[in-house]
Amino acid sequence: MQELESRLIESSGARRIMIATDGVFSMDGYFARLDEICCLASKYGAMVMIDDSHAAGFVGPTGRGTPEHFSVTDQVDVTTGTLGKALGGASGGYTSGRQEIIDLLRQRSRPCLFSNSVAPVIVAASLKAIHLIEEGGHLRTRLRNNTTMFRSRMTAAGFDVLPGEHPIAPVMYGDARAAIDASAQLLEDGIYAIPFSYPVVPKGRARIRIQPAAHTTLDIEHAIAAFERTSARKGDAVSG
Ligand SMILES: Cc1ncc(COP(=O)(O)O)c(C=O)c1O
Questions:
Q1: pTM value?
Q2: Phi, psi of 212 (to 5 degrees)
Q3: What are the pLDDT tens digits along the chain (240 aa)?
Q4: Is the CB of 51 under 6 A from ligand 1?
Q5: Of 142, 143, 157, 159, whose CA–CA distance to 207 is shortest?
Q6: How many angstroms does the Cα of residue 225 sit away from the middle of ligand 1?
Q7: How many CA atoms does the CB half-sphere of 138 hold within 13 Å?
């Protein structure tokens, strides 16, 4: 936040200032401190733009994303997101904001002007996903329960899970080889979980990223048991 404030001070006098951030950072599952960001934006007359791909649909009491989580929905000017995650697993994305911003983007946004539109079948599936999200308090509750269960049981089993409350639960291995080997062993056990290493994450911070989504309690128990059967486990997992 100090760094952001210095940049805002540096930008004073600019015709427009915009702070751009992810709502949730994909590799760690960490939330941007959107409440503090919006405070700084208001202090320095900046607009706020967020990419809320990792929150839309399930973060916040009604799934309206990180701004709802921090109660700053009316202070965010532009939200972008993908239709490829909670909104249906399809492809394509969206930008939302005040009408004058959308009007401008319809004239100036190159991806909007020079690309084909989202395929009708994806539009229909995404609209259905949005309706499910509007009705889907029970799905969010299940996701929250799964997340708490996975995070706490994995930690109790001796794995190094980055702390937090977001469903992205990174199981840390540190060493890239260890993460790749563990992922391969999990796959043999029926669990498809992707390892990430440098340059996607910093060197020595390799991890397997888990998102316990619409799974049942049995699924989660099965996944934890599979993690326990991998050879790089408990004390072997490295916190970098
Ligand atoms: C934060 C964030 N924004 C945007 C995207 C891109 O989504 P898409 O592949 O649907 O364009 C991703 C992809 O994983 C992402 O993590």
A1: 0.91
A2: -75, 85
A3: 999 999 999 999 999 999 999 999 999 999 999 999 999 999 999 999 999 999 999 999 999 999 999 999 999 999 999 999 999 877 899 999 999 999 999 999 998 899 888 899 999 999 999 999 999 789 999 999 999 999 999 999 999 999 999 999 999 999 999 999 999 999 999 999 999 999 999 999 999 999 998 899 999 999 999 999 997 654 455 444
A4: yes
A5: 159
A6: 30
A7: 3
